[in-house]
Amino acid sequence: MTLNLTPREMAVLEELAAAKDLSKTGVMKLALRLLQAMDAKVRMGQKLFVEDDKTKEKSELVIL
Amino acid sequence: MSNMKLKYSKEWYEKRIGLEGENEVGAGYLHGSPESDKEKVTFVDTRIALGAFVSLWRRNQGWDAARLAEKAGIETQEILEIEHDPHCEPEPDTVEKLANVFGLPAKPLLELAGLIQPQTAALREEAVRFAARSESAAALNEHEREAFEAFVSAIAGAVRKK
Amino acid sequence: MNVSAVYLKRGDTGKLVEASLVDEVTDAHLSLWENSWGPVMKVRCANRTSSDKPEDYHWDWRQKAGWWRPLLGYHSFALLCRNELQGLMLASDFRSARIQMQFGKPIIYVEFLATAPWNRPELKKPTRYRGVGTVMMAAAVELSFELGYRGRISLHSLPAAEPFYRDSCKMTGLGADAAHHDLMYFEMTSSQAEAFRQKP
Q1: Short-list C194, C185, C8, CA closest to C87
Q2: Contacts of residue C115 in chain B, CB cutoff 8 Å?
Q3: ipTM field
Q4: Which residues of chain C neighbour A36 with C-beta distances below 8 Å?
């Protein structure tokens, strides 16, 4: 499978690979597994939230 | 699935396991936490309680399984399966006939048998407590009688509260 | 499915015995769990109150398998010895490390780890086998290396198991995690993982 990424997407992929200490393939695989796991939780009726560490304010992450 | 394989030497295991000593090693959710509470009482647990209840009920009457089966108009084998095999799903009709003999409402017993959706959390928790307290000795001792009578109240109460 | 030849130690003699680590929990393993762990747990805990029972007394591995199996990010392990199930572990691979030196880097997270009731000092002495925790930690570390995570692993320890992770595995404790029932959160760094792989 060949991935057609825009220059901007490729830049993000490279940035994430460096930050996560993974290969670009490793990042794509991680993203796939994370998306599948979160999708499964949402399908089960769970919600995803992000929390501001300082204010403890939660907001729902409606991404899936 | 990974392609991972462990390739440690015997000596490695000898030394590493020595370090493990007599420690406990579990990791994950704490008993009583919301996550573990969700799966706390399964239909296997409540069927174990139902089986214990049927057994104690008939022993309280001084009946063997065949006598109870005869009174209920069902097969002795069905009684034995209910009493001993929580993975076996009884027929709704069988449970209703037993409820009739016991003089108890059928709905709570059907719930314990896993034949209808759980409706009363309190009943399920009572069932687990009862199952833990009941023994399978021949005659009811005082401890069993106490547990048995408490559970009968819980079953009867499950219908009244709704 | 991969099978690794590993060793456990007999609790009575201290001798090593051959065992097998399988990198996938199958229906056969779940049947062994249901038919062997369940009844022993029930008998040994019959007179205990709810709060005195082992933390995993009500865990339903079959129910858990129903949701993890279709997901790529979950890895399960079964440990067998003499055709008996000695341990089970479920790990995920999409969480991130919290220790400053590896903050944000992907880490293998041990979701659940349990050993058979006859291997637990709280339920049976002497235990039948020792080493289930060691083998499962080795599996988590190797999985981490295999995925390119350089050995990083993490978990929330059940209270009685903290000495094992802190003292035996030399993991770093980051304190009780209020977001996870106040269980102690441990991480193993890459260098700690390299040290773990060496003969102590």
Answers
A1: C8
A2: 25-26
A3: 0.91
A4: 71-73
